[in-house]
Hints:
Elements: H1 3-11, E1 16-20, H2 25-37, E2 42-48, E3 51-55
Parallel strand pairs: 1-2
Antiparallel strand pairs: 2-3
Amino acid sequence: MGRAAAIAFAREGAGAAITHLPVEETDAREVIALIRQAGRMAERVWAFGTLIRASAT
Length: 57
């Protein structure tokens, strides 16, 4: 799912877990901020090879 879809779903009431590569961290943080501004839960999950880590930021 892309940025626009994640934001649209959040505006309709959905929370989101955003998975991204390290080079996409800035974009992921921006999307999470927009989702949280809509009053929804958003978490960041790094996924690269075997590294999967949840973050509260």
